[in-house]
Amino acid sequence: MVLYFITGNKWKLKEVQAIIPEAEGIDFDLPEIQELDPQKIITEKLKEAVEEKKGDYFVEDTSLYLECLNGFPGPLIKWMLDRLGSKGIYELVSKYNNHSAVAKTVIGYSSRMDIHFFVGELKGKIVAPRGKEGFGWDSIFEVSGRTLAEMPAEEKNKKGMRSTALTKFKKFLNQHG
Fold first, then answer.
1. Domain count, the chain
2. What is the domain range of residue 43?
3. Total Cβ atoms within 10 A of residue 132
4. How far apart (Å, rounded) are the C-alpha atoms in residues 3 and 70?
5. Which one, of 105, 164, 153, 163, lies nearest residue 131 by Cα?
6. What mean pLDDT is predicted for residues 13-21?
7. Which of these, 159, 149, 170, 152, lies nearest to 19 by C-alpha position?
8. In angstroms, how far is the first alpha carbon of the chain from the final one?
9. The CATH number of the domain where 96 resides is what?
10. What is the pLDDT of residues 68-124, one digit of tens each?
């Protein structure tokens, strides 16, 4: 059975294949419900995907939780980034005393029966944009003195929230065939 990673983002696919090389990218145009719970978003996507084509599927949602906004935007970061950009998010957060943030990746996997979830988290803070690597909001998320965009891909893949979730997922795959 083929293991499909549902994404249209070539950068995410590259990070996934660094840890799970057998994963094949598939770009379904699936509806994404607007919800603050990433597991609900993932569940709906997987329900749609299994109707499209036979196979095992996984999808991920990477969210950014800003402490100064009581955890908002979470899974809605895509829309905040679309409207404000990285610099605009930094400027918004800089108006508050608390610049702490949590980046969280949730992976959902379905083999047409149950859905299993795997989570990776990374604590950091929001800073002025720095660095040239990465994508999305990597340039404003700082961990241990450097933004994700200042880290080489290999280092980000070792430390990052997606890597943590993917490692848990890979272990599950190895144990369950």
1. 1
2. 3-176
3. 8
4. 36
5. 153
6. 91
7. 170
8. 10
9. 3.90.950.10
10. 999 999 999 999 999 999 999 999 999 999 999 999 999 999 987 789 999 999 999
